[in-house]
Amino acid sequence: MRTRPLKVALLGCGVVGSEVARILTTNADDLAARVGAPIELAGVAVRRPGRARGQVPAELVTTDATALVKRGDIDVVVEVIGGIEPARSLLTTAFEHGASVVSANKALLAEDGAALHAAAQKHGADLYYEAAVAGAIPLLRPLRESLAGDEVNRVLGIVNGTTNFILDRMDSAGSGYSEALDEATALGYAEADPTADVEGFDAAAKAAILASIAFHTRVRLDDVHREGITEVTAADIVSARRMGRTVKLLAICERAADGRSVTARVHPAMIPLSHPLASVREAYNAVFVESEAAGQLMFYGQGAGGSPTASAVLGDLVAACRNKLNGAVGPGESAYARLAVSPMGRAVTRYHISLDVADKPGVLAQVATVFAEHGVSIDTVRQQGKDGEASLVVVTHRAHDAALSATVETLRRLDTVRGVASIMRVEGE
Ligand SMILES: NC(=O)c1ccc[n+]([C@@H]2O[C@H](COP(=O)([O-])OP(=O)(O)OC[C@H]3O[C@@H](n4cnc5c(N)ncnc54)[C@H](OP(=O)(O)O)[C@@H]3O)[C@@H](O)[C@H]2O)c1
Protein backbone atom coordinates (compact mmCIF):
# COMPACT_ATOMS: atom_id res chain seq x y z
CA MET A 1 0.00 0.00 0.00
CA ARG A 2 1.18 3.53 -0.74
CA THR A 3 2.07 5.35 2.47
CA ARG A 4 1.66 8.90 1.15
CA PRO A 5 -1.98 9.75 1.88
CA LEU A 6 -4.56 11.09 -0.54
CA LYS A 7 -5.68 14.47 0.75
CA VAL A 8 -9.34 15.39 1.02
CA ALA A 9 -10.84 18.84 1.54
CA LEU A 10 -14.32 18.74 3.07
CA LEU A 11 -16.48 21.76 2.20
CA GLY A 12 -19.32 21.85 4.73
CA CYS A 13 -19.62 20.00 8.02
CA GLY A 14 -23.36 20.01 8.66
CA VAL A 15 -25.84 17.10 8.58
CA VAL A 16 -23.98 15.25 5.81
CA GLY A 17 -20.43 16.64 6.18
CA SER A 18 -20.15 15.77 9.88
CA GLU A 19 -21.06 12.14 9.07
CA VAL A 20 -18.56 12.05 6.20
CA ALA A 21 -15.86 13.27 8.63
CA ARG A 22 -16.93 10.73 11.26
CA ILE A 23 -16.86 7.74 8.92
CA LEU A 24 -13.56 8.88 7.34
CA THR A 25 -12.03 8.88 10.81
CA THR A 26 -13.57 5.73 12.29
CA ASN A 27 -13.20 3.60 9.13
CA ALA A 28 -9.76 4.99 8.19
CA ASP A 29 -7.96 1.62 8.12
CA ASP A 30 -10.60 -0.16 6.05
CA LEU A 31 -10.89 2.75 3.62
CA ALA A 32 -7.10 2.81 3.21
CA ALA A 33 -7.08 -0.93 2.46
CA ARG A 34 -9.89 -0.55 -0.09
CA VAL A 35 -8.31 2.43 -1.82
CA GLY A 36 -4.68 1.33 -1.62
CA ALA A 37 -3.52 4.45 0.27
CA PRO A 38 -4.60 6.28 3.41
CA ILE A 39 -7.18 9.06 3.02
CA GLU A 40 -6.28 12.14 5.04
CA LEU A 41 -8.79 14.82 5.96
CA ALA A 42 -6.67 17.87 5.10
CA GLY A 43 -9.14 20.67 5.86
CA VAL A 44 -12.79 21.35 6.65
CA ALA A 45 -14.49 24.56 5.49
CA VAL A 46 -17.50 25.86 7.42
CA ARG A 47 -19.33 29.15 7.88
CA ARG A 48 -19.29 29.31 11.70
CA PRO A 49 -15.87 28.18 13.01
CA GLY A 50 -16.77 28.33 16.69
CA ARG A 51 -19.15 25.34 16.57
CA ALA A 52 -18.16 21.91 17.86
CA ARG A 53 -17.31 19.60 14.92
CA GLY A 54 -17.27 16.16 16.55
CA GLN A 55 -14.07 14.29 15.77
CA VAL A 56 -12.70 17.00 13.44
CA PRO A 57 -9.52 18.51 14.96
CA ALA A 58 -9.98 22.28 15.46
CA GLU A 59 -6.81 23.08 13.48
CA LEU A 60 -8.38 21.60 10.33
CA VAL A 61 -11.40 23.92 10.43
CA THR A 62 -11.36 27.05 8.28
CA THR A 63 -13.85 29.62 7.04
CA ASP A 64 -11.76 30.22 3.90
CA ALA A 65 -13.07 27.53 1.58
CA THR A 66 -11.45 29.18 -1.45
CA ALA A 67 -7.97 29.05 0.07
CA LEU A 68 -8.55 25.40 0.98
CA VAL A 69 -9.44 24.32 -2.59
CA LYS A 70 -6.53 26.40 -3.98
CA ARG A 71 -3.90 24.71 -1.81
CA GLY A 72 -2.61 22.57 -4.67
CA ASP A 73 -1.99 19.44 -2.57
CA ILE A 74 -5.69 18.47 -2.36
CA ASP A 75 -6.57 15.29 -4.31
CA VAL A 76 -10.35 15.29 -3.81
CA VAL A 77 -12.76 18.04 -2.78
CA VAL A 78 -15.99 16.85 -1.12
CA GLU A 79 -18.68 19.54 -1.42
CA VAL A 80 -21.55 19.27 1.05
CA ILE A 81 -22.37 22.97 1.45
CA GLY A 82 -25.38 23.00 -0.89
CA GLY A 83 -26.89 25.83 -2.97
CA ILE A 84 -25.51 27.38 -6.14
CA GLU A 85 -22.91 29.88 -4.88
CA PRO A 86 -20.27 29.69 -3.52
CA ALA A 87 -20.42 25.94 -4.29
CA ARG A 88 -20.15 26.43 -8.08
CA SER A 89 -17.10 28.73 -7.87
CA LEU A 90 -15.43 26.47 -5.32
CA LEU A 91 -15.85 23.38 -7.53
CA THR A 92 -14.57 25.22 -10.60
CA THR A 93 -11.52 26.38 -8.61
CA ALA A 94 -11.00 22.83 -7.31
CA PHE A 95 -10.86 21.46 -10.90
CA GLU A 96 -8.46 24.25 -11.94
CA HIS A 97 -6.15 23.13 -9.15
CA GLY A 98 -6.23 19.49 -10.23
CA ALA A 99 -8.63 18.08 -7.64
CA SER A 100 -11.45 15.66 -8.33
CA VAL A 101 -14.85 16.51 -6.87
CA VAL A 102 -17.52 14.60 -4.99
CA SER A 103 -20.74 16.54 -4.41
CA ALA A 104 -24.19 15.91 -2.93
CA ASN A 105 -25.55 19.11 -4.48
CA LYS A 106 -28.62 18.29 -6.63
CA ALA A 107 -29.54 21.95 -7.16
CA LEU A 108 -26.12 22.79 -8.59
CA LEU A 109 -25.81 19.64 -10.69
CA ALA A 110 -29.30 20.09 -12.15
CA GLU A 111 -28.60 23.73 -12.99
CA ASP A 112 -25.01 23.57 -14.14
CA GLY A 113 -24.02 19.92 -14.53
CA ALA A 114 -22.83 20.30 -18.14
CA ALA A 115 -20.41 23.14 -17.34
CA LEU A 116 -19.05 21.33 -14.29
CA HIS A 117 -18.54 18.12 -16.29
CA ALA A 118 -16.74 20.16 -18.96
CA ALA A 119 -14.46 21.69 -16.31
CA ALA A 120 -13.72 18.25 -14.84
CA GLN A 121 -12.89 16.84 -18.27
CA LYS A 122 -10.68 19.80 -19.16
CA HIS A 123 -8.56 19.28 -16.06
CA GLY A 124 -8.56 15.45 -16.17
CA ALA A 125 -10.55 15.16 -12.94
CA ASP A 126 -13.55 13.18 -11.70
CA LEU A 127 -16.96 14.60 -10.88
CA TYR A 128 -19.15 12.23 -8.87
CA TYR A 129 -22.51 13.01 -7.24
CA GLU A 130 -24.27 9.78 -6.26
CA ALA A 131 -25.60 11.40 -3.05
CA ALA A 132 -27.40 14.14 -5.01
CA VAL A 133 -30.24 11.77 -6.01
CA ALA A 134 -32.02 9.53 -3.50
CA GLY A 135 -29.41 9.76 -0.73
CA ALA A 136 -28.00 6.36 0.15
CA ILE A 137 -29.53 4.50 -2.80
CA PRO A 138 -27.00 3.47 -5.44
CA LEU A 139 -28.71 4.79 -8.53
CA LEU A 140 -26.50 7.03 -10.67
CA ARG A 141 -23.67 4.48 -10.81
CA PRO A 142 -26.03 1.62 -11.84
CA LEU A 143 -27.57 3.87 -14.51
CA ARG A 144 -24.20 5.15 -15.74
CA GLU A 145 -22.17 1.95 -15.47
CA SER A 146 -24.21 -1.23 -14.86
CA LEU A 147 -26.80 -0.28 -17.51
CA ALA A 148 -24.26 1.25 -19.93
CA GLY A 149 -24.90 -1.59 -22.38
CA ASP A 150 -28.68 -1.42 -22.15
CA GLU A 151 -31.33 1.10 -23.25
CA VAL A 152 -33.31 2.74 -20.44
CA ASN A 153 -36.88 3.59 -21.44
CA ARG A 154 -38.35 4.82 -18.20
CA VAL A 155 -37.37 5.95 -14.73
CA LEU A 156 -40.23 6.27 -12.25
CA GLY A 157 -39.34 7.26 -8.75
CA ILE A 158 -40.21 8.50 -5.31
CA VAL A 159 -37.18 10.74 -4.79
CA ASN A 160 -38.38 13.08 -2.04
CA GLY A 161 -38.82 11.63 1.44
CA THR A 162 -40.64 14.64 2.91
CA THR A 163 -43.51 14.50 0.43
CA ASN A 164 -43.68 10.71 0.62
CA PHE A 165 -44.03 10.97 4.39
CA ILE A 166 -46.83 13.54 4.07
CA LEU A 167 -48.77 11.56 1.45
CA ASP A 168 -48.26 8.34 3.43
CA ARG A 169 -49.73 9.97 6.55
CA MET A 170 -52.67 11.31 4.54
CA ASP A 171 -53.29 7.79 3.24
CA SER A 172 -52.60 5.64 6.30
CA ALA A 173 -53.83 7.98 9.09
CA GLY A 174 -56.45 9.91 7.14
CA SER A 175 -54.68 13.22 7.94
CA GLY A 176 -55.31 16.40 5.96
CA TYR A 177 -52.38 17.97 4.10
CA SER A 178 -51.63 20.62 6.77
CA GLU A 179 -51.84 18.14 9.61
CA ALA A 180 -49.47 15.73 7.83
CA LEU A 181 -47.05 18.57 7.05
CA ASP A 182 -47.03 19.62 10.72
CA GLU A 183 -46.22 16.05 11.72
CA ALA A 184 -43.40 15.88 9.14
CA THR A 185 -41.97 19.13 10.53
CA ALA A 186 -42.20 17.94 14.14
CA LEU A 187 -40.35 14.72 13.24
CA GLY A 188 -37.62 16.59 11.36
CA TYR A 189 -38.66 15.29 7.90
CA ALA A 190 -39.70 18.75 6.70
CA GLU A 191 -37.65 21.95 6.96
CA ALA A 192 -38.99 25.17 8.49
CA ASP A 193 -39.56 26.38 4.92
CA PRO A 194 -40.81 23.24 3.16
CA THR A 195 -41.27 24.91 -0.26
CA ALA A 196 -38.44 23.08 -2.06
CA ASP A 197 -39.94 19.74 -1.07
CA VAL A 198 -43.73 20.27 -1.18
CA GLU A 199 -43.67 22.30 -4.41
CA GLY A 200 -41.57 19.63 -6.14
CA PHE A 201 -38.39 21.69 -6.78
CA ASP A 202 -36.15 19.15 -5.03
CA ALA A 203 -37.65 16.22 -6.96
CA ALA A 204 -37.45 18.18 -10.24
CA ALA A 205 -33.69 18.72 -9.78
CA LYS A 206 -33.29 14.99 -9.22
CA ALA A 207 -35.46 14.20 -12.27
CA ALA A 208 -33.20 16.39 -14.44
CA ILE A 209 -30.11 14.52 -13.21
CA LEU A 210 -31.74 11.09 -13.63
CA ALA A 211 -33.04 11.84 -17.13
CA SER A 212 -29.67 13.24 -18.26
CA ILE A 213 -27.85 10.08 -17.22
CA ALA A 214 -30.54 7.58 -18.24
CA PHE A 215 -31.02 9.00 -21.75
CA HIS A 216 -27.47 10.28 -22.51
CA THR A 217 -29.04 13.67 -23.15
CA ARG A 218 -28.76 16.98 -21.36
CA VAL A 219 -32.00 17.56 -19.46
CA ARG A 220 -32.02 20.83 -17.52
CA LEU A 221 -34.10 21.79 -14.54
CA ASP A 222 -36.19 24.09 -16.79
CA ASP A 223 -37.03 21.10 -18.99
CA VAL A 224 -38.77 19.33 -16.10
CA HIS A 225 -42.52 19.89 -15.67
CA ARG A 226 -43.14 20.41 -11.95
CA GLU A 227 -46.21 20.20 -9.73
CA GLY A 228 -46.06 19.80 -5.95
CA ILE A 229 -48.40 18.16 -3.46
CA THR A 230 -49.99 21.23 -1.87
CA GLU A 231 -53.21 20.76 -3.86
CA VAL A 232 -53.63 17.08 -2.95
CA THR A 233 -56.72 16.73 -0.77
CA ALA A 234 -57.98 14.09 1.63
CA ALA A 235 -60.79 13.53 -0.92
CA ASP A 236 -58.22 12.65 -3.61
CA ILE A 237 -56.66 10.08 -1.32
CA VAL A 238 -60.07 8.57 -0.46
CA SER A 239 -61.02 8.46 -4.14
CA ALA A 240 -57.72 6.75 -4.97
CA ARG A 241 -58.27 4.16 -2.23
CA ARG A 242 -61.78 3.45 -3.47
CA MET A 243 -60.27 2.47 -6.81
CA GLY A 244 -57.42 0.40 -5.35
CA ARG A 245 -54.81 3.14 -5.75
CA THR A 246 -52.65 5.40 -3.62
CA VAL A 247 -51.16 8.85 -4.28
CA LYS A 248 -47.39 9.43 -4.60
CA LEU A 249 -45.25 12.35 -5.75
CA LEU A 250 -43.42 10.83 -8.70
CA ALA A 251 -40.44 11.86 -10.79
CA ILE A 252 -41.04 10.37 -14.24
CA CYS A 253 -38.44 10.36 -17.01
CA GLU A 254 -39.61 8.67 -20.20
CA ARG A 255 -38.42 7.98 -23.69
CA ALA A 256 -41.19 8.51 -26.29
CA ALA A 257 -42.47 5.45 -28.16
CA ASP A 258 -40.58 6.49 -31.33
CA GLY A 259 -37.36 6.74 -29.28
CA ARG A 260 -36.55 10.23 -30.58
CA SER A 261 -37.56 12.38 -27.62
CA VAL A 262 -37.87 12.27 -23.85
CA THR A 263 -40.00 13.92 -21.20
CA ALA A 264 -39.22 14.61 -17.56
CA ARG A 265 -41.92 15.54 -15.07
CA VAL A 266 -42.68 15.68 -11.36
CA HIS A 267 -46.26 15.60 -10.10
CA PRO A 268 -48.55 13.73 -7.74
CA ALA A 269 -50.03 10.63 -9.32
CA MET A 270 -52.29 7.76 -8.43
CA ILE A 271 -50.64 4.36 -8.69
CA PRO A 272 -52.23 0.94 -8.13
CA LEU A 273 -51.74 -0.55 -4.67
CA SER A 274 -50.17 -3.56 -6.43
CA HIS A 275 -47.34 -1.42 -7.88
CA PRO A 276 -44.00 -1.85 -6.04
CA LEU A 277 -43.80 1.93 -5.44
CA ALA A 278 -47.13 1.86 -3.56
CA SER A 279 -45.51 0.01 -0.66
CA VAL A 280 -42.82 2.67 -0.20
CA ARG A 281 -43.83 4.16 3.13
CA GLU A 282 -42.84 7.06 5.36
CA ALA A 283 -39.75 9.01 4.22
CA TYR A 284 -38.24 6.20 2.15
CA ASN A 285 -37.28 6.63 -1.50
CA ALA A 286 -37.51 4.12 -4.34
CA VAL A 287 -36.84 4.26 -8.04
CA PHE A 288 -38.24 1.90 -10.64
CA VAL A 289 -36.22 1.59 -13.85
CA GLU A 290 -37.43 -0.06 -17.05
CA SER A 291 -34.87 -0.96 -19.68
CA GLU A 292 -34.85 -2.82 -22.97
CA ALA A 293 -32.77 -5.86 -21.94
CA ALA A 294 -32.83 -5.89 -18.12
CA GLY A 295 -36.58 -5.30 -17.88
CA GLN A 296 -37.78 -3.88 -14.58
CA LEU A 297 -35.41 -2.94 -11.76
CA MET A 298 -36.24 -1.44 -8.38
CA PHE A 299 -33.91 0.55 -6.11
CA TYR A 300 -35.07 1.20 -2.55
CA GLY A 301 -33.65 2.82 0.58
CA GLN A 302 -33.13 5.95 2.64
CA GLY A 303 -33.14 9.04 0.49
CA ALA A 304 -31.80 11.46 3.09
CA GLY A 305 -30.22 11.80 6.50
CA GLY A 306 -26.62 12.39 7.50
CA SER A 307 -25.35 8.85 7.71
CA PRO A 308 -27.21 7.37 4.68
CA THR A 309 -26.15 10.30 2.49
CA ALA A 310 -22.57 10.07 3.77
CA SER A 311 -22.53 6.42 2.64
CA ALA A 312 -23.09 7.54 -0.96
CA VAL A 313 -20.53 10.36 -0.62
CA LEU A 314 -17.90 7.94 0.70
CA GLY A 315 -18.56 5.45 -2.11
CA ASP A 316 -17.81 8.24 -4.58
CA LEU A 317 -14.79 9.34 -2.56
CA VAL A 318 -13.30 5.83 -2.67
CA ALA A 319 -13.87 5.72 -6.47
CA ALA A 320 -12.25 9.14 -6.95
CA CYS A 321 -9.29 8.18 -4.72
CA ARG A 322 -8.76 4.89 -6.59
CA ASN A 323 -8.74 6.78 -9.88
CA LYS A 324 -6.22 9.32 -8.53
CA LEU A 325 -3.96 6.51 -7.44
CA ASN A 326 -4.18 4.77 -10.82
CA GLY A 327 -3.79 7.98 -12.81
CA ALA A 328 -7.22 7.31 -14.30
CA VAL A 329 -10.51 9.19 -14.61
CA GLY A 330 -13.98 7.67 -14.26
CA PRO A 331 -16.78 8.07 -16.80
CA GLY A 332 -17.62 11.70 -17.53
CA GLU A 333 -20.81 13.20 -18.92
CA SER A 334 -22.49 11.13 -21.63
CA ALA A 335 -24.78 13.42 -23.66
CA TYR A 336 -24.11 12.04 -27.15
CA ALA A 337 -27.74 10.99 -27.83
CA ARG A 338 -28.96 14.62 -27.88
CA LEU A 339 -32.62 13.55 -27.79
CA ALA A 340 -35.22 16.31 -27.97
CA VAL A 341 -36.79 17.11 -24.60
CA SER A 342 -40.53 17.42 -25.20
CA PRO A 343 -42.82 19.73 -23.23
CA MET A 344 -45.42 18.34 -20.83
CA GLY A 345 -48.18 18.50 -23.47
CA ARG A 346 -46.46 15.62 -25.30
CA ALA A 347 -46.43 13.37 -22.22
CA VAL A 348 -48.88 10.48 -22.46
CA THR A 349 -50.64 9.10 -19.39
CA ARG A 350 -54.04 8.36 -17.83
CA TYR A 351 -56.09 10.81 -15.77
CA HIS A 352 -58.46 10.79 -12.81
CA ILE A 353 -60.76 13.83 -13.03
CA SER A 354 -63.25 14.75 -10.36
CA LEU A 355 -66.06 17.11 -11.44
CA ASP A 356 -68.89 18.78 -9.52
CA VAL A 357 -71.90 18.74 -11.86
CA ALA A 358 -75.63 19.41 -11.86
CA ASP A 359 -77.56 16.26 -11.01
CA LYS A 360 -79.92 16.14 -13.98
CA PRO A 361 -80.49 13.96 -17.04
CA GLY A 362 -78.08 14.37 -19.97
CA VAL A 363 -75.12 15.74 -17.99
CA LEU A 364 -73.14 12.53 -18.21
CA ALA A 365 -73.65 12.37 -21.98
CA GLN A 366 -72.63 16.02 -22.33
CA VAL A 367 -69.42 15.47 -20.37
CA ALA A 368 -68.62 12.28 -22.30
CA THR A 369 -69.06 14.17 -25.58
CA VAL A 370 -66.45 16.76 -24.54
CA PHE A 371 -63.93 14.00 -23.80
CA ALA A 372 -64.68 12.34 -27.17
CA GLU A 373 -64.36 15.64 -29.08
CA HIS A 374 -60.80 16.02 -27.75
CA GLY A 375 -59.86 12.41 -28.52
CA VAL A 376 -59.63 11.44 -24.84
CA SER A 377 -61.14 8.02 -24.33
CA ILE A 378 -62.94 7.27 -21.05
CA ASP A 379 -62.16 4.11 -19.11
CA THR A 380 -64.52 4.39 -16.11
CA VAL A 381 -67.09 6.86 -14.75
CA ARG A 382 -68.48 6.97 -11.24
CA GLN A 383 -71.37 9.26 -10.37
CA GLN A 384 -72.77 10.15 -6.99
CA GLY A 385 -75.76 12.48 -6.68
CA LYS A 386 -77.13 14.48 -3.76
CA ASP A 387 -79.63 17.39 -3.53
CA GLY A 388 -79.48 18.39 -7.19
CA GLU A 389 -75.67 18.32 -7.29
CA ALA A 390 -73.50 15.37 -8.23
CA SER A 391 -69.87 14.43 -8.31
CA LEU A 392 -68.53 12.68 -11.35
CA VAL A 393 -65.21 10.83 -11.29
CA VAL A 394 -63.84 10.05 -14.73
CA VAL A 395 -60.77 7.89 -15.34
CA THR A 396 -59.42 8.05 -18.87
CA HIS A 397 -57.35 5.78 -21.06
CA ARG A 398 -53.90 7.06 -22.08
CA ALA A 399 -53.97 10.49 -23.71
CA HIS A 400 -51.65 13.39 -24.41
CA ASP A 401 -51.45 15.91 -21.58
CA ALA A 402 -52.30 18.69 -24.04
CA ALA A 403 -55.52 16.88 -25.07
CA LEU A 404 -56.53 16.45 -21.44
CA SER A 405 -55.88 20.14 -20.69
CA ALA A 406 -58.04 21.17 -23.66
CA THR A 407 -60.79 18.78 -22.47
CA VAL A 408 -60.78 20.32 -18.99
CA GLU A 409 -60.87 23.86 -20.38
CA THR A 410 -64.01 22.99 -22.37
CA LEU A 411 -65.61 21.22 -19.40
CA ARG A 412 -65.10 24.33 -17.24
CA ARG A 413 -67.20 26.33 -19.72
CA LEU A 414 -70.23 23.98 -19.52
CA ASP A 415 -73.15 25.41 -17.50
CA THR A 416 -73.76 21.99 -16.01
CA VAL A 417 -70.19 21.66 -14.71
CA ARG A 418 -70.04 23.59 -11.42
CA GLY A 419 -66.33 23.01 -10.93
CA VAL A 420 -63.32 20.78 -11.55
CA ALA A 421 -62.53 19.49 -8.08
CA SER A 422 -59.28 17.74 -8.99
CA ILE A 423 -57.21 16.36 -11.82
CA MET A 424 -54.66 13.70 -11.08
CA ARG A 425 -52.57 11.56 -13.38
CA VAL A 426 -52.71 7.79 -13.06
CA GLU A 427 -49.39 5.96 -13.51
CA GLY A 428 -48.01 2.47 -13.30
CA GLU A 429 -50.94 0.62 -14.92
N1 LIG B 1 -29.30 16.42 4.64
C1 LIG B 1 -29.63 15.42 3.84
O1 LIG B 1 -30.30 14.47 4.24
C2 LIG B 1 -29.15 15.43 2.41
C3 LIG B 1 -29.47 14.35 1.56
C4 LIG B 1 -29.01 14.35 0.24
C5 LIG B 1 -28.27 15.41 -0.21
N2 LIG B 1 -28.00 16.47 0.61
C6 LIG B 1 -27.22 17.58 0.08
O2 LIG B 1 -26.01 17.70 0.82
C7 LIG B 1 -25.63 19.06 0.88
C8 LIG B 1 -25.44 19.45 2.35
O3 LIG B 1 -26.65 19.27 3.04
P1 LIG B 1 -26.68 19.31 4.66
O4 LIG B 1 -28.04 18.85 5.02
O5 LIG B 1 -25.50 18.64 5.23
O6 LIG B 1 -26.59 20.89 4.89
P2 LIG B 1 -26.30 21.64 6.27
O7 LIG B 1 -26.55 20.76 7.44
O8 LIG B 1 -26.99 22.95 6.20
O9 LIG B 1 -24.72 21.90 6.21
C9 LIG B 1 -24.12 22.82 5.34
C10 LIG B 1 -22.68 23.03 5.75
O10 LIG B 1 -22.06 23.93 4.84
C11 LIG B 1 -21.42 24.97 5.59
N3 LIG B 1 -21.43 26.18 4.79
C12 LIG B 1 -22.49 26.90 4.38
N4 LIG B 1 -22.08 27.95 3.64
C13 LIG B 1 -20.73 27.89 3.60
C14 LIG B 1 -19.73 28.68 3.02
N5 LIG B 1 -20.04 29.77 2.32
N6 LIG B 1 -18.42 28.31 3.17
C15 LIG B 1 -18.10 27.23 3.91
N7 LIG B 1 -19.02 26.42 4.49
C16 LIG B 1 -20.31 26.76 4.33
C17 LIG B 1 -22.18 25.10 6.88
O11 LIG B 1 -21.35 25.69 7.86
P3 LIG B 1 -21.88 25.88 9.37
O12 LIG B 1 -21.93 24.49 9.94
O13 LIG B 1 -20.82 26.70 9.99
O14 LIG B 1 -23.21 26.53 9.27
C18 LIG B 1 -22.51 23.62 7.16
O15 LIG B 1 -21.45 23.01 7.82
C19 LIG B 1 -26.73 19.84 0.14
O16 LIG B 1 -26.33 20.02 -1.20
C20 LIG B 1 -27.92 18.92 0.21
O17 LIG B 1 -28.83 19.11 -0.86
C21 LIG B 1 -28.42 16.50 1.91
Sheet-strand content, in percent, reads: 25-35%
Looking at the structure, what is the overall shape?
elongated
Number of helices: 14
Structural class: alpha/beta
Amino-to-carboxy terminus distance: 53 Å
| Total beta strands | 18
Low-confidence stretches: none
Q: Roughly what is the average pLDDT, rounded to an integer?
A: 96
Major sheet summary line: 12 strands, mixed
Assembly state of the chains shown = single chain
Rg calc: 24 Å
- Share in helix: 25-40%
Q: Which ligands does the model contain, each kind named once?
A: NADP nicotinamide-adenine-dinucleotide phosphate
Overview in brief:
The protein is α/β, with parallel strands linked by helices and 429 residues long.
Question: Your description of this structure?
Answer:
With 429 residues, the chain is α/β, with parallel strands linked by helices. Helix content is 36%, strand content 27%. It is built from 14 helices and 18 strands. The strands form two sheets. Strands 7, 8, 9, 10, 11, 12, 13, 14, 15, 16, 17 and 18 form a twelve-stranded mixed sheet that branches. A six-stranded parallel sheet has the order 3-2-1-4-5-6, with helices on both faces. A hairpin with a 2-residue loop joins strand 15 and strand 16. The radius of gyration is 24 Å and the shape is elongated. It starts with 5 loop residues before the first strand and ends with a strand. The mean pLDDT is 96. It binds NADP nicotinamide-adenine-dinucleotide phosphate (NAP).
